[in-house]
């Protein structure tokens, strides 16, 4: 697959980055999206058999399909599958048995996918609204949301720096692992320096636009749950409680 | 002799944006080529193919007969040095001296050659006094010169300058112009991506105009600059000297000729 000349990690990282899509799930109140994601998280942790956790994973994939974000969640699963394989091997080697090893690795995939569903469908603005709703300090909210918003920018910076260093003969695609790790120094230093410079410039620009002058600034957007938000909220809680009940009452063979 | 060959190159970004559409271009050894065009025309994307940073989605790019898909960027860069637009994207060393030596070490030069080439580059770009200074504390113009020093130190056959005049004062632009002329004189193949027509005009390079990922004009600067329709389409303006010449029409019998410098213009326009 053509990745536009960008490294694999750039393609994979798309599994956690918001992209504006018109879908019923994207339209939901961000608090409901967080709740749905949290429910999947809880159900993944509570599952005690491979069938149970596989069902949760199937439910996450279904929600991703409704959110028209199947490819992005797919990237998350591809991204996590290496770690999942590691968990599988380690658990087998430590004598926990194949069923348990499979359970833990699939559970890992489900947990990562459940968080990915939230981040892929929730914009930084919506994230800010949730944090404000939690009454977190304004500066903390601003710092967190700005950091999230700048992830793609910093990534692009990183790739431009990699390009510049490769153009000076730095070999990032060949060599032993220790050598490759050592070769990341010429990439990391400019990246950190640029990020520090950018944060300073951003702070100055924000101050120049009167950031902090009002102790209680108003917000351009607000959170308001509509009937379908409430419907999804209630349906989500009912399904979670029902699933937990099934977990308790039905014993799956593996 | 063709040194760089773009053979029906199309490049599609991961987002699906088509950056280059069926671009074919041949650059001969020793030629100076300037690539101009509106923002997003595909200029930088095109030159990033030269050292293999980008590989074509279809078509082929060959540098000195070698397909860029079959060789790493680090290897190709020995032949084609690219000076990027933003110097902050490459400076990382403890000192200016070690910054220049970085690529030379990567390319396997001997310590003796490294010291010699480093001295030459620092002196040539007026950076010798900053030899032990951290590159991160240099001014914008000095950083830009340092990135050029880093490239020219390893003496590549092809020198690509991506927006070299950004952030440079008039004196530095003049110095840059002299450097390009020096490169031309020493038989280097020089490719300049720039919006700065006033900088390019006196150099009189072969001018390639890009728009929407395609090459819409390719020829001697004077000839391309006479085609107003092409320039308007690619959002490129004529240099002031040429506009003045055309507006005054002092030689109606000769509606257009190359006017690379004011001195030549005066000489040619004089009755």
Explain what the structure shows:
The complex is a heterodimer of chains A (254) and B (271). Chain A is mostly helical. Chain A has 2 domains: 1-122 and 243-254, no CATH class; 125-223, no CATH class. Chain A is 70% helix and 0% strand. Chain A contains 11 helices and no strands. In chain A, helix 2 runs antiparallel to helix 5, helix 3 packs parallel to helix 5 and helix 8 (151-166) crosses helix 10. With 271 residues, chain B is α/β, with parallel strands linked by helices. Chain B has 2 domains: 1-79 and 157-220, 3-Layer(aba) Sandwich (Rossmann fold); 94-155, no CATH class. In chain B, a hairpin with a 5-residue loop joins strand 1 (2-12) and strand 2 (18-28). In chain B, helix 3 crosses helix 4. The longest helix of chain B has 16 residues, at 170-185. Chain B is globular. The termini of chain B are far apart. The mean pLDDT of chain B is 89. At the A-B interface, helix 8 and helix 10 of A face helix 3 of B.
Topology:
The complex is a heterodimer of chains A (254) and B (271).
Chain A: H1 8-13, H2 30-46, H3 50-66, H4 70-93, H5 98-121, H6 124-133, H7 138-149, H8 151-166, H9 177-182, H10 185-208, H11 227-249
Chain B: E1 2-12, E2 18-28, E3 32-37, H1 43-48, E4 58-63, E5 66-67, H2 73-76, E6 80-83, H3 96-106, H4 111-124, H5 140-152, E7 158-162, H6 170-185, E8 189-193, H7 197-200, E9 206-211, E10 214-220, H8 221-225, H9 228-233, H10 240-248, H11 262-269
Parallel strand pairs in B: 3-8, 3-9, 6-7, 7-8
Antiparallel strand pairs in B: 1-2, 1-4, 4-5, 9-10
Helix pairs in contact in B: 3-4, 3-5, 4-5
Domain count of chain A: the total is 2
Distance between the termini of chain B: 42 Å
Extended strand count of chain B = 10
Uncertain residue segments of chain A: 1-5
- Mean pLDDT of chain A, to the nearest integer, reads 86
Largest sheet of chain A: none
Fill in the CATH topology of the largest domain in chain B. Rossmann fold
Portion in strands of chain A: under 5%
Q: What structural class do helix, strand and pairing data of chain A support?
A: mainly alpha
Which architecture of the largest domain in chain B does the CATH hierarchy give at level 2? Answer: 3-Layer(aba) Sandwich
* CATH hierarchy, class of the largest domain in chain B: Alpha Beta
- Percent helix among the residues of chain B? 25-40%
User: Over the alpha carbons, how many angstroms does the gyration radius of chain B reach?
Assistant: 19 Å
Helix and strand succession of chain B? EEEHEEHEHHHEHEHEEHHHH
From the structure provided, what is the oligomeric state, counting identical versus distinct chains?
Answer: heterodimer
């Amino acid at each position: 697959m053509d990745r536009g000349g960008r490294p694999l990690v750039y393609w994979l990282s798309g599994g956690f980055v918001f992209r504006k899509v018109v879908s019923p799930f994207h339209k939901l109140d961000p608090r409901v999206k967080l709740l749905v994601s949290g429910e999947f998280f809880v159900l993944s942790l509570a599952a005690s058999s491979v069938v149970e956790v596989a069902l949760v994973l199937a439910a996450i994939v279904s929600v991703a399909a409704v959110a028209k974000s199947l490819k992005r969640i797919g990237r998350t699963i591809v991204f996590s599958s290496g770690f999942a394989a590691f968990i599988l091997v380690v658990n087998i080697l430590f004598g926990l048995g194949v069923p348990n090893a499979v359970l833990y690795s699939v559970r890992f995939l489900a947990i990562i996918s459940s968080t990915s569903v939230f981040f892929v469908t929730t914009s930084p603005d919506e994230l800010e609204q949730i944090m404000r709703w939690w009454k977190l300090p304004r500066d903390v909210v601003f710092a967190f949301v700005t950091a999230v918003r700048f992830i793609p920018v910093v990534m692009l910076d990183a790739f431009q720096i990699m390009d510049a260093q490769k153009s000076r003969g730095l070999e990032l695609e060949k060599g032993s692992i220790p050598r490759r790790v050592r070769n990341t120094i010429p990439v990391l230093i400019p990246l950190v320096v640029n990020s520090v410079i950018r944060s300073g410039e951003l702070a100055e620009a924000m101050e120049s636009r009167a950031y902090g002058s009002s102790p209680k600034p108003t917000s351009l957007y607000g959170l308001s749950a509509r009937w379908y938000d409430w419907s999804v909220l209630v349906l989500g809680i009912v399904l979670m409680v029902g699933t937990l009940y099934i977990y308790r009452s039905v014993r799956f063979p593996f | 002799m063709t040194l760089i060959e773009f053979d029906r190159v199309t490049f599609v970004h991961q987002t699906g944006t088509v950056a280059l559409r069926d671009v074919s271009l041949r650059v001969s050894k020793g030629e100076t080529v300037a690539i101009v065009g509106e923002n997003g025309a595909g200029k930088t994307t095109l030159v990033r193919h030269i050292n293999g940073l980008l590989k074509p989605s279809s078509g082929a790019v060959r540098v000195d007969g070698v397909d860029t898909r079959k060789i790493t960027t680090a290897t190709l860069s020995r032949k084609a040095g690219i000076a990027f637009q933003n110097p902050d994207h490459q400076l990382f060393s403890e000192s200016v001296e070690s910054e220049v030596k970085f690529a030379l070490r990567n390319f396997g030069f001997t310590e003796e050659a490294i010291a010699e080439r480093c001295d030459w580059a620092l002196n040539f770009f007026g950076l010798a006094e900053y030899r032990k200074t951290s590159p991160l504390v240099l001014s914008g113009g000095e950083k830009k010169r340092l990135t050029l020093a880093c490239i020219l130190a390893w003496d590549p056959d092809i020198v690509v300058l991506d927006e070299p005049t950004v952030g440079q004062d008039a004196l530095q632009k003049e110095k840059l112009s002299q450097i390009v002329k020096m490169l031309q004189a020493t038989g280097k193949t020089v490719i300049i991506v720039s919006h700065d027509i006033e900088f390019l005009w006196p150099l009189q390079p072969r001018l390639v105009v890009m728009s929407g990922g395609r090459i819409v004009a390719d020829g001697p600067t004077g000839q391309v600059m006479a085609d107003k329709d092409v320039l308007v389409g690619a959002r490129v303006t004529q240099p002031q000297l040429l506009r003045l010449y055309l507006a005054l029409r002092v030689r109606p019998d000769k509606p257009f000729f190359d006017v690379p410098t004011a001195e030549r213009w005066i000489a040619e326009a004089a009755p």
